Amino acid sequence: MHIATTFEMAQIDQRAQDTYAIDGRLLMEQAGTKAYAAAVSWLREQGHKTERMVFLSGGGNNGGDALVMAREALISGVEQVSVIYLQERCSDQTALQRSMYDKLGGKLIEVHSPEVDSLLHQADVIIDGLVGTGLKQQLRAGDVRSLIERVNALQHPAVIALDLPSGLTEELGGDAVFMHASCTITFGLPKEPCFYPHTRTYCGHIITLNPGFPKQLLDSFGRDCCIRTPQEFSLPHLPSSSYKNTKGHLAVFAGSTGYTGAAVLCAEAALRARTGLVTLYCDQDIYPIVASHAVSVMVKPLAPGMIIHASELAASYDAVLAGPGWGTGVQRELQIREVLHSALPATLDADAIPLVGNLLETGQITVNDLSHLLLTPHPGEFAKLTGHRIKDHPGSMLRVLRSTAEALGCVIMVKSHVNYMCDPHGNIIITEGMNPAMGTAGSGDVLSGIAAGLTAQHLSTFDAVSIGNAVHQLTGALAFSSRGWFIAEDLLDHIGMVIKRMEKDDLLDHTCSLD
What we know:
The structure is a single chain. By secondary structure, the chain is α/β, with parallel strands linked by helices. The chain has 2 domains: 6-222, YjeF N-terminal domain (Rossmann fold, 3-Layer(aba) Sandwich), CATH 3.40.50; 230-504, Ribokinase (UDP-N-acetylmuramoyl-L-alanine:D-glutamate ligase). 40% of the residues lie in helices and 17% in strands. It has helices at residues 6-18, 24-46, 61-75, 92-103, 116-122, 143-152, 215-219, 260-272, 287-293, 310-316, 330-341, 352-361, 379-386, 397-408, 443-456, 461-483, 488-502, and strands spanning 52-57, 80-85, 107-110, 125-129, 158-162, 183-187, 205-209, 225-227, 235-236, 249-253, 277-283, 298-302, 319-322, 346-349, 373-376, 411-414, 418-422, 428-432, 503-504. A 10-stranded mixed beta sheet has the order 8-18-17-16-15-14-13-10-11-12, with helices on both faces. Strands 3-2-1-4-5-6-7 form a 7-stranded parallel beta sheet, with helices on both faces. Strands 9-19 form a two-stranded parallel sheet. Helix 9 links the parallel strand 11 and strand 12 (298-302).
């Protein structure tokens, strides 16, 4: 599904009315009635009480949607229904909805009323319709911000946000105040601000509803950013005549004193992802440890100062992985330079990522050497690569990811509880992990091994990381369901079964096409 910016969503809403003659009042009615049905269904599934419902209504159309829902609650016989509204100028549609709700005998409470705090504390459910996609900057001091802070301080009620949690915007800074929702019911298309690493958790369960926008209109927006579930990806069957020399040979540079496990994990993960052969190069002093644990991997020791040159790599291998537990330094830079000059598909993870920046700064490589590259930083490594701290500036995260991938001409995956894969043209695929069991040491090494192994099997770099990420996420879900909380080694046992289940005759079209 495509993801829209708030600006694009405003265009969709306006075009629906101007081009397709869909009345805005109809859109609001359908948004509110569908949202109420979805909210009640979700609340019941989660076991939440629904006897006391409080609706927060701002002056914009988001507040109108909340008022439609409040009217639906009254009509359906909810025991206690209250609307807390902002004493401000409101849109004509919202004023109409407020009037209809009032004439039904609904309880309307102005935001400064002394009743507000008791209503919030007694509520089973709070529906957030304070500010929608029209917000252009972070909330400053005022009634909306104050009300959000009071709701966020509560412990017990379920909070359902309409379209996106109030205060959430693309211009979000790390200190921004926004509503913390248990569930977000969004209209038309999912909204980009809900999927930043810093904000995703506070949006809760996300439900997307169409209040009546034409499909062709929705399909014309958000085409450079889409969200995919791991289940949407597949792999082609290998020919029955396949054997190790036809399934790709991956060279791995990983491991150092104290970090031997990273080398073993990434190398074995690549093998379990159908790669035919894996050769692991490691420092001579850790060779005995690594070789004794990586039984199916060909482990080769590197004497101090020894470099595997680009010509040898190009002649012997189909792809390269470098970085897990590897360390940094001049010797590592020299090896990375050879890897890049080999022109092989190269996955650089962990310690190898800052080496690329150093090589670019010193002129030892140019961006022309990076077109075959996959970088897989976590947020901290992304900050070192770009100077952009996601936690401090979440609203510009996707813009920085796009500009970096375009400037370097390579594929970048930023890893967190939500994963972001960007190609050199600025197309982004987002997949949600949201599996805390994956937050264990070595999990990222397994991911890099899977993705690199798929590049050795001659998948494109973007396909390899997109499918590799899906394999990794499904493996984590399978491991958690069968073992509970696990360690990274446990993931290895489940990769093969996940790969088998993903094998299909045709590779699904999972790219974000701009056509």
